[in-house]
């Protein structure tokens, strides 16, 4: 199953802002905070887009079970909001129907 994620926090709950203010090496922070983009054995990250000024993330993830996705998104829910939408692959569906290029 494919899911579209929109996750958002604000400058008050941003780990990057907190790291910078505390003097933490921002490169080290980014290395750890972006690890989610690599997915895990139960969730595959298909696409990841960041809007840093808005503290917003858009991602397309693939998982067999919603429970796995729910656990995967906990770090976003801990610092802000996380909207999860089940989506379909329209391009694959158009190809499968034989309508591509017609």
Write the layout of secondary structure elements.
Blueprint: E1 2-8, H1 15-22, H2 26-33, E2 43-51, E3 56-63, H3 66-72, H4 74-79, E4 81-87, H5 90-96
Antiparallel strand pairs: 1-3, 1-4, 2-3
Helix pairs in contact: 1-2
Largest sheet: 4 strands, antiparallel
Termini distance? 27 Å
The rounded Rg comes to 16 Å
Mean pLDDT across all residues, rounded? 92
Uncertain stretches: none
Tally of separate domains: 1
- Secondary structure: helix percent: 25-40%
Lateral strand order in the biggest sheet: 2-3-1-4
Q: Beta-strand percentage?
A: 25-35%
In terms of structural class, how would the helical and strand content be classed?
alpha+beta
Number of strands: 4
Could you name the CATH class?
Alpha Beta
| Helix segment tally | 5
Gross morphology: elongated
- SSE arrangement, N to C: EHHEEHHEH
Q: In the CATH hierarchy, what is the architecture at level 2?
A: 2-Layer Sandwich
CATH topology: Alpha-Beta Plaits
Considering the chains and any ligands shown, give keywords for the structure.
alpha+beta; Alpha-Beta Plaits; 30% strand; 102 residues; elongated
Q: Can you describe what's shown?
A:
- The protein is of the alpha+beta class.
- The protein has one domain (2-96): Alpha-Beta Plaits (2-Layer Sandwich), CATH 3.30.70.
- 35% of the residues lie in helices and 30% in strands.
- It has helices at 15-22, 26-33, 66-72, 74-79, 90-96, and strands at 2-8, 43-51, 56-63, 81-87.
- The chain has a four-stranded antiparallel beta sheet with strand order 2-3-1-4.
- The two termini are 27 Å apart.
